[in-house]
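Help wanted!
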Amino acid sequence: MVVTRFAPSPTGYLHIGGLRTALFSYLWAKKNGGKFVLRIEDTDKARNSEEATQAILKAFEWLGLEADGEITYQSQRDEIYAKYIKQLLDEGKAYKCYMSKEELTELRETQMANKERTKYNGKYRDFDGTPPEGVEPVIRIKAPLTGEILVKDGVKGNISFQAEDILDDFVIARADGAPTYNFVVAIDDYLMGINEVIRGDDHLSNTPKQIVVYKALGFEIPMFYHVPMIHNSAGKKLSKRDGATDVMAYKEMGYTPQALLNFLVRLGWSHGDQEIFSMDEMKELFNPKDINKSASIYNTEKLDWLNAHYIKNTPNSELAELLTQYDLVLASHDKKEILLDELKERAKTLKELASLTKEILETPTTYDEKAVKKAFKGNAIEVLNTFGAKVGNAKELHLPSDYHHLMEEVVNEMEIGFGKIGQPLRVALLGKMSGPGLDSVMAILGKDETMLRIANAITANS
RNA sequence: GGCCCCGUCGUCUAGCGGUUAGGAUCCAUGGUUUUCAUCCAUGUUACAGGAGUUCGAUUCUCCUCGGGGUCACCA
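Answered by r_m:
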Protein backbone atom coordinates (compact mmCIF):
# COMPACT_ATOMS: atom_id res chain seq x y z
CA MET A 1 0.00 0.00 0.00
CA VAL A 2 1.19 3.47 -0.82
CA VAL A 3 1.53 5.68 2.23
CA THR A 4 2.50 9.32 1.74
CA ARG A 5 2.77 12.15 4.20
CA PHE A 6 2.84 15.85 4.72
CA ALA A 7 5.16 16.89 7.51
CA PRO A 8 5.11 20.63 8.15
CA SER A 9 6.84 22.34 11.00
CA PRO A 10 4.32 24.61 12.68
CA THR A 11 6.15 27.87 12.48
CA GLY A 12 3.51 29.78 10.57
CA TYR A 13 0.59 29.51 8.22
CA LEU A 14 0.33 26.93 5.46
CA HIS A 15 1.87 28.40 2.37
CA ILE A 16 1.46 27.77 -1.33
CA GLY A 17 4.55 25.63 -1.72
CA GLY A 18 3.70 23.42 1.20
CA LEU A 19 0.17 23.06 -0.02
CA ARG A 20 1.36 21.89 -3.40
CA THR A 21 3.52 19.10 -2.02
CA ALA A 22 0.69 18.20 0.35
CA LEU A 23 -1.67 18.05 -2.61
CA PHE A 24 0.72 15.90 -4.62
CA SER A 25 1.15 13.54 -1.68
CA TYR A 26 -2.58 13.41 -1.06
CA LEU A 27 -3.36 12.75 -4.70
CA TRP A 28 -0.79 10.02 -5.08
CA ALA A 29 -2.07 8.21 -2.00
CA LYS A 30 -5.66 8.47 -3.17
CA LYS A 31 -4.80 7.36 -6.66
CA ASN A 32 -3.32 4.18 -5.22
CA GLY A 33 -5.99 3.59 -2.65
CA GLY A 34 -3.36 4.25 -0.03
CA LYS A 35 -3.03 6.56 2.91
CA PHE A 36 -2.05 10.16 3.31
CA VAL A 37 -0.89 10.98 6.80
CA LEU A 38 -0.07 14.20 8.56
CA ARG A 39 2.84 14.66 10.90
CA ILE A 40 3.52 17.87 12.75
CA GLU A 41 7.26 18.43 13.11
CA ASP A 42 7.25 20.42 16.28
CA THR A 43 10.61 19.56 17.75
CA ASP A 44 11.85 23.13 17.71
CA LYS A 45 10.13 24.38 20.81
CA ALA A 46 11.38 27.90 20.38
CA ARG A 47 9.79 28.47 16.99
CA ASN A 48 6.69 26.31 17.09
CA SER A 49 3.24 27.42 18.03
CA GLU A 50 -0.10 25.78 18.54
CA GLU A 51 -1.74 28.51 16.46
CA ALA A 52 0.39 27.55 13.52
CA THR A 53 -0.71 23.95 13.79
CA GLN A 54 -4.32 25.08 13.91
CA ALA A 55 -3.79 27.36 10.93
CA ILE A 56 -2.47 24.45 8.89
CA LEU A 57 -5.39 22.26 9.90
CA LYS A 58 -7.84 25.00 9.09
CA ALA A 59 -6.39 25.41 5.63
CA PHE A 60 -6.64 21.69 5.02
CA GLU A 61 -10.24 21.81 6.07
CA TRP A 62 -11.06 24.68 3.74
CA LEU A 63 -9.50 22.85 0.83
CA GLY A 64 -11.11 19.56 1.63
CA LEU A 65 -7.83 17.73 2.02
CA GLU A 66 -8.20 15.18 4.71
CA ALA A 67 -5.41 13.27 6.35
CA ASP A 68 -5.92 9.62 7.15
CA GLY A 69 -5.69 8.43 10.69
CA GLU A 70 -4.44 10.29 13.70
CA ILE A 71 -2.14 13.26 13.38
CA THR A 72 1.33 12.52 14.65
CA TYR A 73 3.15 15.10 16.74
CA GLN A 74 6.88 14.69 16.98
CA SER A 75 6.93 16.49 20.29
CA GLN A 76 5.10 13.53 21.79
CA ARG A 77 7.53 10.92 20.60
CA ASP A 78 10.62 11.62 22.66
CA GLU A 79 10.75 8.11 24.17
CA ILE A 80 10.72 6.58 20.73
CA TYR A 81 13.63 8.67 19.53
CA ALA A 82 15.48 8.08 22.80
CA LYS A 83 15.13 4.37 22.29
CA TYR A 84 16.76 4.50 18.88
CA ILE A 85 19.49 6.81 20.07
CA LYS A 86 20.29 4.33 22.80
CA GLN A 87 20.22 1.50 20.30
CA LEU A 88 22.74 3.21 18.04
CA LEU A 89 24.92 4.05 21.01
CA ASP A 90 24.83 0.46 22.22
CA GLU A 91 25.66 -0.84 18.79
CA GLY A 92 28.55 1.56 18.48
CA LYS A 93 26.96 3.26 15.50
CA ALA A 94 26.74 6.55 17.33
CA TYR A 95 28.79 8.17 20.02
CA LYS A 96 28.94 11.00 22.49
CA CYS A 97 30.87 14.02 21.32
CA TYR A 98 32.24 16.35 23.96
CA MET A 99 33.46 19.04 21.68
CA SER A 100 32.42 22.40 23.06
CA LYS A 101 30.61 24.92 20.92
CA GLU A 102 33.65 27.16 21.06
CA GLU A 103 35.92 24.39 19.86
CA LEU A 104 33.51 23.52 17.09
CA THR A 105 33.34 27.13 15.98
CA GLU A 106 37.08 27.36 15.98
CA LEU A 107 37.34 24.19 13.94
CA ARG A 108 34.99 25.61 11.36
CA GLU A 109 36.82 28.89 11.17
CA THR A 110 40.08 27.15 10.59
CA GLN A 111 38.55 25.05 7.85
CA MET A 112 37.05 28.08 6.20
CA ALA A 113 40.34 29.91 6.38
CA ASN A 114 41.92 26.95 4.61
CA LYS A 115 39.08 26.93 2.10
CA GLU A 116 38.11 23.48 3.16
CA ARG A 117 34.62 22.16 3.53
CA THR A 118 33.39 22.72 7.08
CA LYS A 119 32.80 19.45 8.78
CA TYR A 120 33.20 17.70 12.08
CA ASN A 121 36.66 16.20 12.42
CA GLY A 122 35.70 12.98 14.16
CA LYS A 123 37.60 13.85 17.32
CA TYR A 124 35.38 11.78 19.61
CA ARG A 125 34.47 9.11 17.09
CA ASP A 126 36.65 6.49 18.76
CA PHE A 127 37.22 8.26 22.02
CA ASP A 128 37.60 6.09 25.10
CA GLY A 129 39.41 8.40 27.48
CA THR A 130 38.01 10.55 30.27
CA PRO A 131 35.49 13.06 28.98
CA PRO A 132 36.26 16.72 29.60
CA GLU A 133 34.51 18.41 32.50
CA GLY A 134 31.58 20.72 32.08
CA VAL A 135 30.55 19.77 28.56
CA GLU A 136 27.20 18.14 27.98
CA PRO A 137 27.81 15.85 25.03
CA VAL A 138 25.84 15.73 21.82
CA ILE A 139 25.28 12.40 20.10
CA ARG A 140 26.78 11.99 16.66
CA ILE A 141 26.12 9.20 14.24
CA LYS A 142 28.99 7.40 12.53
CA ALA A 143 28.47 8.30 8.91
CA PRO A 144 30.39 6.61 6.15
CA LEU A 145 33.59 8.53 5.38
CA THR A 146 33.87 7.35 1.81
CA GLY A 147 31.77 5.72 -0.82
CA GLU A 148 28.67 6.58 -2.76
CA ILE A 149 25.28 7.49 -1.37
CA LEU A 150 22.67 6.91 -4.01
CA VAL A 151 19.33 8.65 -3.80
CA LYS A 152 16.71 7.04 -5.95
CA ASP A 153 14.43 9.84 -6.92
CA GLY A 154 11.26 9.40 -8.94
CA VAL A 155 11.41 12.92 -10.30
CA LYS A 156 15.07 13.55 -10.91
CA GLY A 157 16.34 10.05 -11.45
CA ASN A 158 19.24 8.50 -9.55
CA ILE A 159 21.39 11.06 -7.84
CA SER A 160 24.82 10.09 -6.64
CA PHE A 161 26.63 11.77 -3.77
CA GLN A 162 30.12 11.04 -2.54
CA ALA A 163 30.32 10.65 1.23
CA GLU A 164 33.57 12.60 1.43
CA ASP A 165 31.96 15.54 -0.33
CA ILE A 166 28.93 15.95 1.86
CA LEU A 167 28.94 13.85 5.00
CA ASP A 168 30.40 14.04 8.44
CA ASP A 169 29.31 12.57 11.75
CA PHE A 170 26.29 14.77 12.12
CA VAL A 171 24.47 15.39 15.38
CA ILE A 172 21.43 13.22 16.02
CA ALA A 173 20.79 14.42 19.56
CA ARG A 174 21.53 17.81 21.01
CA ALA A 175 23.23 18.46 24.33
CA ASP A 176 19.81 18.67 25.99
CA GLY A 177 18.92 15.29 24.55
CA ALA A 178 16.51 16.57 21.91
CA PRO A 179 16.88 14.65 18.66
CA THR A 180 17.52 16.50 15.42
CA TYR A 181 15.55 16.75 12.24
CA ASN A 182 17.31 14.37 9.88
CA PHE A 183 17.26 11.71 12.55
CA VAL A 184 13.61 11.89 13.54
CA VAL A 185 12.39 12.25 9.98
CA ALA A 186 13.92 8.95 9.01
CA ILE A 187 12.59 7.22 12.10
CA ASP A 188 9.10 8.60 11.79
CA ASP A 189 8.82 7.96 8.11
CA TYR A 190 9.80 4.38 8.71
CA LEU A 191 7.62 3.87 11.78
CA MET A 192 4.63 5.44 10.13
CA GLY A 193 4.99 3.11 7.20
CA ILE A 194 5.66 5.88 4.71
CA ASN A 195 7.05 4.38 1.56
CA GLU A 196 6.68 7.27 -0.89
CA VAL A 197 8.08 10.59 0.22
CA ILE A 198 7.03 13.56 -1.86
CA ARG A 199 8.63 16.80 -0.72
CA GLY A 200 10.31 19.95 -1.95
CA ASP A 201 13.69 19.53 -3.60
CA ASP A 202 15.24 21.81 -0.99
CA HIS A 203 15.31 18.54 0.96
CA LEU A 204 17.34 16.76 -1.66
CA SER A 205 20.62 17.49 0.05
CA ASN A 206 19.23 16.23 3.36
CA THR A 207 18.37 12.91 1.85
CA PRO A 208 21.84 11.33 2.04
CA LYS A 209 21.90 12.05 5.77
CA GLN A 210 18.55 10.43 6.21
CA ILE A 211 19.73 7.47 4.23
CA VAL A 212 22.63 7.15 6.66
CA VAL A 213 20.08 6.92 9.47
CA TYR A 214 17.92 4.42 7.60
CA LYS A 215 20.93 2.22 7.03
CA ALA A 216 22.24 2.48 10.58
CA LEU A 217 18.86 1.38 11.89
CA GLY A 218 18.36 -1.25 9.23
CA PHE A 219 15.23 0.45 7.90
CA GLU A 220 14.00 0.06 4.37
CA ILE A 221 14.55 3.23 2.35
CA PRO A 222 11.40 4.74 0.83
CA MET A 223 10.93 6.03 -2.69
CA PHE A 224 11.65 9.74 -2.93
CA TYR A 225 10.10 12.33 -5.17
CA HIS A 226 11.75 15.71 -4.88
CA VAL A 227 9.48 18.33 -6.32
CA PRO A 228 11.13 21.42 -7.79
CA MET A 229 10.68 24.66 -5.94
CA ILE A 230 8.18 27.35 -6.70
CA HIS A 231 10.05 30.56 -7.30
CA ASN A 232 8.95 34.13 -6.89
CA SER A 233 9.15 36.57 -9.78
CA ALA A 234 12.76 37.28 -8.85
CA GLY A 235 13.56 33.62 -9.42
CA LYS A 236 14.18 32.79 -5.78
CA LYS A 237 12.60 30.19 -3.57
CA LEU A 238 9.13 31.31 -2.63
CA SER A 239 9.10 32.27 1.00
CA LYS A 240 6.68 33.64 3.49
CA ARG A 241 8.07 37.06 2.81
CA ASP A 242 6.80 37.09 -0.74
CA GLY A 243 3.26 38.00 0.15
CA ALA A 244 0.09 36.24 -0.86
CA THR A 245 1.60 32.91 0.07
CA ASP A 246 -0.73 32.20 2.97
CA VAL A 247 -3.24 29.72 1.66
CA MET A 248 -6.05 31.21 3.71
CA ALA A 249 -5.44 34.60 2.13
CA TYR A 250 -6.78 33.08 -1.05
CA LYS A 251 -10.04 32.36 0.65
CA GLU A 252 -10.28 35.97 1.72
CA MET A 253 -9.51 37.15 -1.79
CA GLY A 254 -12.42 35.11 -3.06
CA TYR A 255 -10.78 32.12 -4.66
CA THR A 256 -12.47 28.77 -4.53
CA PRO A 257 -10.66 25.70 -3.21
CA GLN A 258 -11.29 24.01 -6.52
CA ALA A 259 -9.54 26.77 -8.48
CA LEU A 260 -6.60 26.98 -6.10
CA LEU A 261 -6.06 23.24 -6.15
CA ASN A 262 -6.41 23.07 -9.92
CA PHE A 263 -3.94 25.92 -10.26
CA LEU A 264 -1.44 24.28 -7.95
CA VAL A 265 -1.67 20.83 -9.45
CA ARG A 266 -0.66 22.30 -12.81
CA LEU A 267 2.35 24.03 -11.35
CA GLY A 268 5.11 21.56 -12.01
CA TRP A 269 2.83 18.80 -13.13
CA SER A 270 0.88 18.21 -16.29
CA HIS A 271 -1.21 15.67 -18.07
CA GLY A 272 -0.87 16.42 -21.76
CA ASP A 273 -2.74 19.58 -22.66
CA GLN A 274 -5.38 19.31 -19.98
CA GLU A 275 -5.86 22.42 -17.89
CA ILE A 276 -9.08 21.80 -16.00
CA PHE A 277 -9.09 19.01 -13.46
CA SER A 278 -11.87 18.10 -11.10
CA MET A 279 -10.76 16.59 -7.82
CA ASP A 280 -11.79 13.18 -9.11
CA GLU A 281 -9.73 13.64 -12.25
CA MET A 282 -6.72 14.73 -10.23
CA LYS A 283 -7.00 11.62 -8.10
CA GLU A 284 -7.35 9.54 -11.21
CA LEU A 285 -4.60 11.09 -13.29
CA PHE A 286 -1.93 12.34 -10.93
CA ASN A 287 1.37 10.56 -11.08
CA PRO A 288 4.61 11.91 -9.64
CA LYS A 289 6.53 10.56 -12.62
CA ASP A 290 4.98 13.38 -14.62
CA ILE A 291 6.32 16.04 -12.30
CA ASN A 292 8.60 18.54 -14.00
CA LYS A 293 12.27 18.69 -13.20
CA SER A 294 12.55 22.43 -13.26
CA ALA A 295 11.34 25.09 -10.88
CA SER A 296 8.36 27.18 -11.81
CA ILE A 297 7.70 30.82 -11.22
CA TYR A 298 4.72 31.75 -9.17
CA ASN A 299 2.37 33.83 -11.24
CA THR A 300 -1.33 34.00 -10.48
CA GLU A 301 -2.66 35.06 -13.89
CA LYS A 302 -3.86 31.59 -14.57
CA LEU A 303 -5.38 31.29 -11.14
CA ASP A 304 -7.69 34.17 -11.95
CA TRP A 305 -8.74 32.49 -15.13
CA LEU A 306 -9.39 29.21 -13.36
CA ASN A 307 -11.30 30.90 -10.60
CA ALA A 308 -13.51 32.71 -13.10
CA HIS A 309 -14.03 29.41 -14.88
CA TYR A 310 -15.16 27.66 -11.72
CA ILE A 311 -17.42 30.50 -10.66
CA LYS A 312 -19.11 30.43 -14.04
CA ASN A 313 -19.70 26.73 -13.70
CA THR A 314 -20.91 26.69 -10.13
CA PRO A 315 -24.67 26.26 -9.59
CA ASN A 316 -26.37 29.39 -8.28
CA SER A 317 -27.56 27.75 -5.09
CA GLU A 318 -24.00 26.82 -4.25
CA LEU A 319 -22.73 30.28 -5.13
CA ALA A 320 -25.33 31.89 -2.88
CA GLU A 321 -24.09 29.71 -0.06
CA LEU A 322 -20.45 30.55 -0.79
CA LEU A 323 -21.21 34.26 -0.93
CA THR A 324 -22.35 34.33 2.67
CA GLN A 325 -18.65 34.15 3.51
CA TYR A 326 -18.25 37.49 1.79
CA ASP A 327 -21.01 39.27 3.67
CA LEU A 328 -23.66 38.77 1.07
CA VAL A 329 -26.89 37.08 2.05
CA LEU A 330 -28.96 36.30 -0.98
CA ALA A 331 -31.23 33.64 0.44
CA SER A 332 -34.32 35.82 0.57
CA HIS A 333 -33.90 37.51 -2.78
CA ASP A 334 -36.58 36.16 -5.11
CA LYS A 335 -34.63 36.96 -8.26
CA LYS A 336 -31.30 35.54 -7.21
CA GLU A 337 -31.26 33.09 -10.10
CA ILE A 338 -31.35 35.89 -12.64
CA LEU A 339 -28.93 37.93 -10.59
CA LEU A 340 -26.33 35.22 -10.29
CA ASP A 341 -26.74 34.13 -13.89
CA GLU A 342 -25.93 37.66 -14.98
CA LEU A 343 -23.10 38.33 -12.59
CA LYS A 344 -21.18 35.11 -12.37
CA GLU A 345 -20.08 35.59 -15.96
CA ARG A 346 -18.22 38.73 -15.02
CA ALA A 347 -16.55 38.00 -11.71
CA LYS A 348 -13.05 36.66 -11.29
CA THR A 349 -13.45 36.06 -7.58
CA LEU A 350 -16.25 35.42 -5.13
CA LYS A 351 -15.36 38.64 -3.42
CA GLU A 352 -15.79 40.50 -6.67
CA LEU A 353 -19.06 38.70 -7.26
CA ALA A 354 -20.27 39.85 -3.87
CA SER A 355 -19.38 43.45 -4.48
CA LEU A 356 -20.83 43.39 -8.00
CA THR A 357 -24.07 42.14 -6.50
CA LYS A 358 -24.13 44.80 -3.84
CA GLU A 359 -23.54 47.48 -6.44
CA ILE A 360 -26.62 46.46 -8.31
CA LEU A 361 -28.80 46.05 -5.27
CA GLU A 362 -27.94 49.46 -3.89
CA THR A 363 -29.77 52.46 -5.30
CA PRO A 364 -27.20 54.69 -6.98
CA THR A 365 -26.62 58.01 -5.25
CA THR A 366 -24.14 59.40 -7.73
CA TYR A 367 -23.87 59.19 -11.48
CA ASP A 368 -20.68 58.82 -13.42
CA GLU A 369 -20.01 62.20 -14.97
CA LYS A 370 -18.80 61.03 -18.33
CA ALA A 371 -21.63 58.57 -18.58
CA VAL A 372 -24.18 61.24 -17.90
CA LYS A 373 -22.64 63.54 -20.47
CA LYS A 374 -22.79 60.85 -23.09
CA ALA A 375 -26.17 59.37 -22.29
CA PHE A 376 -28.24 62.36 -21.31
CA LYS A 377 -28.18 64.07 -24.67
CA GLY A 378 -31.12 65.11 -26.83
CA ASN A 379 -34.42 63.81 -25.64
CA ALA A 380 -33.04 61.31 -23.15
CA ILE A 381 -35.17 62.70 -20.34
CA GLU A 382 -38.28 62.40 -22.44
CA VAL A 383 -37.42 58.84 -23.36
CA LEU A 384 -36.90 57.95 -19.72
CA ASN A 385 -40.18 59.60 -18.76
CA THR A 386 -42.00 57.66 -21.42
CA PHE A 387 -40.43 54.41 -20.36
CA GLY A 388 -40.98 55.13 -16.69
CA ALA A 389 -44.65 55.71 -17.34
CA LYS A 390 -44.96 52.43 -19.18
CA VAL A 391 -43.34 50.59 -16.29
CA GLY A 392 -45.71 52.32 -13.93
CA ASN A 393 -48.78 51.30 -15.92
CA ALA A 394 -47.74 47.72 -16.54
CA LYS A 395 -49.67 45.11 -14.63
CA GLU A 396 -47.39 42.10 -14.67
CA LEU A 397 -43.65 42.63 -14.66
CA HIS A 398 -41.55 39.69 -13.63
CA LEU A 399 -39.27 38.38 -16.32
CA PRO A 400 -36.49 40.20 -18.13
CA SER A 401 -38.53 39.76 -21.30
CA ASP A 402 -41.42 41.70 -19.74
CA TYR A 403 -39.17 44.72 -19.41
CA HIS A 404 -37.68 44.12 -22.79
CA HIS A 405 -41.10 44.39 -24.43
CA LEU A 406 -41.62 47.72 -22.76
CA MET A 407 -38.32 48.97 -24.09
CA GLU A 408 -39.24 47.81 -27.56
CA GLU A 409 -42.50 49.68 -27.38
CA VAL A 410 -40.70 52.90 -26.56
CA VAL A 411 -38.19 52.35 -29.34
CA ASN A 412 -40.96 51.78 -31.86
CA GLU A 413 -43.28 54.54 -30.72
CA MET A 414 -40.60 57.18 -30.52
CA GLU A 415 -38.80 55.91 -33.59
CA ILE A 416 -35.41 55.83 -31.93
CA GLY A 417 -32.53 53.38 -31.85
CA PHE A 418 -32.08 51.00 -28.97
CA GLY A 419 -29.09 52.92 -27.72
CA LYS A 420 -31.21 56.03 -27.22
CA ILE A 421 -33.08 54.36 -24.45
CA GLY A 422 -30.43 51.88 -23.34
CA GLN A 423 -27.75 54.38 -22.47
CA PRO A 424 -29.73 56.78 -20.30
CA LEU A 425 -31.63 53.92 -18.73
CA ARG A 426 -28.37 52.21 -17.85
CA VAL A 427 -27.03 55.31 -16.19
CA ALA A 428 -30.31 55.77 -14.36
CA LEU A 429 -30.35 52.22 -13.05
CA LEU A 430 -26.66 51.65 -12.37
CA GLY A 431 -25.09 55.08 -12.29
CA LYS A 432 -22.58 54.16 -14.94
CA MET A 433 -22.21 52.98 -18.53
CA SER A 434 -21.26 49.38 -18.01
CA GLY A 435 -22.95 46.45 -16.42
CA PRO A 436 -25.27 43.53 -16.99
CA GLY A 437 -28.18 43.41 -19.39
CA LEU A 438 -30.82 45.99 -18.54
CA ASP A 439 -33.73 43.62 -18.93
CA SER A 440 -32.26 41.44 -16.22
CA VAL A 441 -31.31 44.33 -14.00
CA MET A 442 -34.89 45.60 -14.00
CA ALA A 443 -36.29 42.15 -13.38
CA ILE A 444 -33.93 41.80 -10.43
CA LEU A 445 -34.82 45.21 -9.02
CA GLY A 446 -38.54 44.91 -9.55
CA LYS A 447 -41.07 47.47 -10.69
CA ASP A 448 -40.91 49.87 -7.74
CA GLU A 449 -37.15 50.10 -7.50
CA THR A 450 -36.89 50.49 -11.27
CA MET A 451 -39.29 53.41 -11.24
CA LEU A 452 -37.56 54.96 -8.28
CA ARG A 453 -34.19 54.88 -9.98
CA ILE A 454 -35.58 56.33 -13.19
CA ALA A 455 -37.24 59.15 -11.28
CA ASN A 456 -34.08 59.79 -9.27
CA ALA A 457 -32.01 60.03 -12.39
CA ILE A 458 -34.42 62.41 -14.08
CA THR A 459 -34.40 64.67 -11.05
CA ALA A 460 -30.63 64.58 -10.72
CA ASN A 461 -29.80 65.11 -14.36
CA SER A 462 -32.50 67.43 -15.71
C1' G B 1 33.30 28.55 -2.47
C1' G B 2 32.17 22.70 -2.14
C1' C B 3 28.25 19.46 -3.41
C1' C B 4 23.58 18.73 -5.95
C1' C B 5 19.61 20.08 -9.31
C1' C B 6 17.67 22.71 -13.47
C1' G B 7 17.51 25.48 -18.59
C1' U B 8 11.11 25.09 -24.79
C1' C B 9 6.86 31.41 -26.02
C1' G B 10 6.56 36.94 -20.60
C1' U B 11 4.21 32.89 -17.41
C1' C B 12 2.30 27.41 -16.77
C1' U B 13 3.53 23.52 -19.95
C1' A B 14 3.35 19.31 -24.37
C1' G B 15 7.35 17.04 -26.83
C1' C B 16 10.63 11.58 -25.19
C1' G B 17 15.80 11.38 -33.13
C1' G B 18 12.42 13.20 -38.49
C1' U B 19 6.56 18.02 -36.02
C1' U B 20 4.69 24.13 -40.23
C1' A B 21 7.79 22.94 -32.20
C1' G B 22 1.37 21.89 -29.86
C1' G B 23 -2.00 23.68 -25.80
C1' A B 24 -3.21 27.19 -21.87
C1' U B 25 -2.66 32.03 -19.82
C1' C B 26 -1.38 37.00 -20.79
C1' C B 27 -1.39 40.75 -24.59
C1' A B 28 -3.33 42.68 -29.39
C1' U B 29 -7.09 42.73 -33.28
C1' G B 30 -11.90 41.38 -35.16
C1' G B 31 -16.92 39.34 -34.34
C1' U B 32 -21.19 38.85 -30.85
C1' U B 33 -23.29 42.26 -26.91
C1' U B 34 -27.42 49.10 -26.69
C1' U B 35 -22.49 49.09 -22.79
C1' C B 36 -19.10 46.13 -19.80
C1' A B 37 -18.02 41.12 -19.00
C1' U B 38 -18.64 36.33 -21.06
C1' C B 39 -18.18 33.72 -25.55
C1' C B 40 -16.04 32.86 -30.59
C1' A B 41 -12.18 33.77 -34.28
C1' U B 42 -7.33 35.46 -35.64
C1' G B 43 -2.49 37.05 -34.50
C1' U B 44 2.63 38.28 -32.00
C1' U B 45 6.24 35.55 -28.97
C1' A B 46 10.26 29.95 -27.35
C1' C B 47 14.06 25.18 -28.02
C1' A B 48 20.56 29.67 -23.58
C1' G B 49 25.36 29.10 -26.53
C1' G B 50 29.14 25.86 -28.64
C1' A B 51 31.17 21.22 -29.97
C1' G B 52 30.26 16.02 -30.80
C1' U B 53 27.20 11.27 -32.03
C1' U B 54 23.83 10.58 -36.24
C1' C B 55 21.56 10.52 -42.85
C1' G B 56 18.98 13.78 -39.35
C1' A B 57 19.06 16.85 -33.24
C1' U B 58 14.56 20.69 -29.01
C1' U B 59 15.24 15.47 -27.95
C1' C B 60 21.53 11.63 -26.74
C1' U B 61 26.92 13.06 -24.85
C1' C B 62 30.45 16.78 -23.37
C1' C B 63 31.87 21.84 -22.45
C1' U B 64 30.54 26.93 -21.57
C1' C B 65 27.08 30.29 -19.80
C1' G B 66 22.88 31.26 -16.88
C1' G B 67 19.51 30.19 -12.79
C1' G B 68 18.31 27.66 -8.30
C1' G B 69 18.91 24.61 -3.83
C1' U B 70 21.92 23.19 0.19
C1' C B 71 26.06 23.14 3.31
C1' A B 72 23.54 24.03 12.00
C1' C B 73 23.25 21.26 18.63
C1' C B 74 16.55 24.97 12.33
C1' A B 75 13.10 22.18 10.22
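OP: Thanks! One thing I noticed: The two ends of chain A are 76 Å apart (CA to CA).
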